[in-house]
Amino acid sequence: MQQGVAHRKELALIERALDALRRQTGLTGRILQLEPKRTIADGTTRYRPDALIEIQVRDRKLKFFAEVKLIDRFEMVTQVRTFWPLHARPPILLVAPYITAEMTERCRDVKLFFLDGAGNAYIELPGFYLFITGKKRTADLLPADRVRMVTPTALKVIFAILCRPQLLAGTYREIAAAARVALGTVGWVMRDLQAGKHVVTLRRNYPALRKLLQAEQHKLLDPERLLREWVAFYGAKLRPKLNVQRFRGPNLDWAEKADLRPYGACWGGEIAAQRMTGYLKPETATVYIQHQPTQLIADYRLRADVRGEIEILDVFWNPDQIPHEPDLVPPILAYADLMATTDARNLEAAKLIHNEHIAPHLYRTT
Which residues contact 94 (CB under 8 A, 6 or more apart)? Predict the structure, then answer.
């Protein structure tokens, strides 16, 4: 069985989870294939699982597509279920370092089967039910967010790169300008991205490339994987730092008439999704604004209300460097806003945004 360096952690985690399952239940499992060629299709985009595994249950051999997540954020449950249909065969099995009690309940709610490295597990099939919870996290299963790559500043840099992969062909100064971060930040973020096998670097000291390259050239190895990790951490690490304020509007249709452009603001969340896809009837309004929202609040008679349907957040990117529709956030941000919810229609809209507005551009380098 051959695998690259980028997949060794995934392989080790699957083996760790299968060994924990054996110790807890006596059930044995094995990896049949890494990255099987078979895919699960949603009609527009195809997704390849990380592995095909088999678990022996008495006289039955149960097969699963394994989706490995080296992060353990609540949001990843929504991500996996959104992109892997409930009816897929073999069924999808989430494999993660550790599944918290809260994540366990979420997995059961959406019938997402899982194994973790501590021995927690959930599988529910005709004639077979397995549920193990309460196993404690050990020291070697520390959360992935202990690394610097998921600090708010790093997430700003990663967002800029995902929105505009062409930045990797430029200079650190250009990346810093697009992400609105200090120039010195970019170097260590790029080093962390390389350590995490997200970015590969071509250096100009290669003789054959010396005349072609004016600086280090970087390339995303797996943009989809980096996107999933960014979305998983955005809601917990960066979004709370954006001066989130909540309001209530004078009526339910105020947003249909509102023009945010004079205020240096743009729509995110459900309204952005509705305008990008035509799929949703928005029930909440998410606004990202570059300046103080005082004038916007006054002009549209918004009232402060911690339970209001309107939220206003700070713009954290450079709109001049990251192109998007004048009154809408970049598609990746609208996608992240929707993925942070548990509403089924929001998740369907998120999938449409991903397939129509994000996936076609992730690998673009020019």
Answer: 67, 69, 76, 77, 80, 107, 112, 113, 114, 115
| Cα dihedral 203, 208, 210, 214 sign | negative
**Cα distance between residue 77 and residue 72, in whole Å:** 9
What is the sign, positive or negative, of the torsion defined by CA atoms of 315, 267, 312, 298?
positive
pTM of the model: 0.73
Q: What length does the chain have?
A: 366
State how far Cα 71 lies from the chain centre.
10
* pLDDT tens sequence for the chain (366 residues): 334 444 677 888 899 999 999 999 999 999 998 878 766 655 545 567 888 999 999 889 999 999 888 766 666 777 787 777 777 789 999 999 998 888 888 888 888 999 999 999 999 999 999 999 989 888 677 654 445 677 899 999 999 999 999 998 889 999 999 999 999 999 889 988 887 778 887 655 444 444 443 445 778 888 888 898 899 889 888 999 999 999 998 876 788 888 999 999 999 999 999 999 988 889 999 999 999 999 999 999 999 999 999 999 999 999 999 988 889 999 999 999 999 887 889 989 999 999 999 988 876 655
Can you list the pairs that 134-137 forms with residues at least 24 positions away whose Cβ atoms lie under 8 Å?
134/101, 135/20, 135/24, 137/97, 137/98
